[in-house]
């Protein structure tokens, strides 16, 4: 109420050892084939098709077949030409042995390649696993260190009174949601106001990046009334903190007198135990008083205010005499069954003194 984020080693085959310096290098015709002879060495066949291991192996086998077909009478020379240091005594065995050497050679190469690929795959998988574990550990560690709290206090309008300031503020919790809003003023101001007539302090609530922090609450009107309200038990010096859910222009447009829309509104919007006044006050609205939360003489309470059937403000009230006791106080706010406008609404109000300053606030916000 106005009161104003490997190399492979093949085992030696039993045979005759040829010393390289006693061997001449024969021509192709000396091997019995003549100029038109067709001859393919297993080894030379193996040197072909360099880019395909499987093709190499079959060319090698083909060379061994030609050896058996055309050069079986000259096994020693063939074997010398092949470059191998040991010559089997049987031509057939020689050719088969040559074929075996070729096949084993390439099978081993392929096996080696497969071993290398498997080893690399295992290494890659191990690397990925270790890296993932490392990054996971880092992430857990980072979370424990760099988690940023969004708890903060935002300050709004400040006004000078008696050589000191009164200011509005909003506090947010760890998630950045509103937790408390109110005003703070010093003991000096309390004493100064004692000798001053009724005062009205209009203070805008702070915003964050142009957005309301505690919607629907827009601004605060703090009224000081030296004599209080004419009607008992509110006829004592007191502070009334109107926390408006509408902007100042809408507030100022409220007319005094009968407000039928408020008087006939659905009672689910009015907390149990509250009673509406008969008329609206200018630039405020119809006050609704908690009939179970006041004493005589008056010390503190909280009211709701309506206009045209809509919630316009919530109003903690506290007497000057109670503030002077420097006593902290907290109480629940009776809640209606529903709120017409979505937003954050308080479930407690508090009066606190920190040794130098007083704060009047609405707290423990819940989203509706």
Please give a quick description of this structure.
This protein has 368 residues and is of the alpha+beta class.
Describe the structure.
The protein folds into 2 domains: 16-145, no CATH class; 152-367, no CATH class. 29% of the residues lie in helices and 29% in strands. The chain is built from 8 helices and 17 strands. It has helices at 42-47, 53-70, 75-82, 91-146, 187-193, 248-252, 260-263, 320-323, and strands spanning 16-17, 86-87, 152-161, 164-172, 178-186, 199-204, 207-208, 211-212, 219-225, 238-244, 274-276, 286-290, 300-307, 310-319, 329-332, 344-353, 357-367. The strands form 4 sheets. Strands 6-9-10-14-13-12-11 form a 7-stranded antiparallel sheet. The longest helix is centred in the N-terminal third of the chain and has 56 residues, at 91-146. The chain is elongated.
Characteristic key phrases:
368 residues, alpha+beta, 2 domains, 29% helix, disordered N terminus
Q: Percent of residues in helical segments?
A: 25-40%
User: Any idea how many domains?
Assistant: 2
Roughly how many Å apart are the termini?
25 Å
For the secondary structure, the number of strands is 17
Q: Would you tell me the overall average pLDDT? A: 77
**What can be said about the biggest beta sheet?**
7 strands, antiparallel
The low-pLDDT segments are: 3-49, 75-87, 137-146
Strand order of the largest sheet: 6-9-10-14-13-12-11
Name the beta content range.
25-35%
Structural class: alpha+beta
> Rg, please?
49 Å
Annotation field: number of helices: 8
What oligomeric assembly is this protein in? single chain
Shape annotation:
elongated
Order of helices and strands: EHHHEHEEEHEEEEEHHEEEEHEEE
């Amino acid at each position: 109420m106005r009161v104003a984020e490997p190399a492979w080693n093949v085992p030696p085959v039993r045979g005759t050892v040829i010393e390289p310096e006693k061997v001449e290098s024969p021509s192709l015709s000396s091997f019995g084939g003549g100029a038109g002879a067709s001859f393919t060495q297993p080894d030379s066949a193996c040197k072909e098709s360099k880019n395909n291991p499987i093709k190499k192996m079959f060319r090698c086998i083909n060379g061994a077949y030609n050896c058996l077909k055309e050069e079986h009478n000259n096994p020693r020379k063939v074997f010398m030409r092949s470059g191998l240091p040991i010559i089997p005594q049987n031509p057939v065995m020689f050719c088969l042995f040559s074929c075996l050497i070729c096949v084993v050679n390439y099978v081993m190469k392929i096996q080696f390649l497969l071993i290398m690929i498997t080893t690399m795959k295992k290494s890659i998988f191990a690397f990925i696993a270790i890296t993932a574990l490392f990054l996971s550990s880092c992430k857990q560690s980072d979370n424990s260190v760099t988690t940023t709290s969004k708890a903060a206090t935002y300050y709004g309008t400040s006004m000078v009174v008696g050589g000191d300031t009164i200011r509005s503020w909003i506090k947010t919790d760890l998630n950045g949601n509103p937790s408390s809003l109110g005003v703070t003023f010093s003991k000096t101001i309390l004493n100064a106001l004692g000798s001053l007539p009724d005062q009205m302090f209009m203070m805008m609530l702070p915003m964050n990046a142009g957005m309301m922090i505690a919607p629907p609450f827009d601004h605060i009107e703090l009224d000081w009334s030296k004599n209080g309200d004419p009607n008992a038990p509110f006829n004592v010096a007191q502070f009334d903190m109107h926390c408006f859910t509408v902007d100042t222009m809408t507030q100022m447009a409220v007319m005094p007198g009968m407000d039928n829309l408020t008087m006939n509104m659905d009672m689910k919007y009015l907390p149990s135990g509250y009673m509406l006044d008969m008329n609206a006050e200018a630039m405020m609205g119809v006050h609704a008083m908690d009939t179970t939360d006041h004493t005589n003489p008056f010390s503190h309470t909280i009211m709701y205010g309506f206009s045209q059937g809509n919630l316009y403000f919530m109003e903690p009230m506290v007497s000057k005499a109670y503030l002077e006791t420097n006593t902290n106080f907290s109480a629940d706010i009776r809640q209606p069954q529903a709120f017409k406008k979505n937003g954050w609404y308080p479930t407690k109000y508090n009066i606190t003194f920190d040794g130098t300053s007083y704060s009047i606030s609405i707290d423990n916000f819940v989203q509706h």
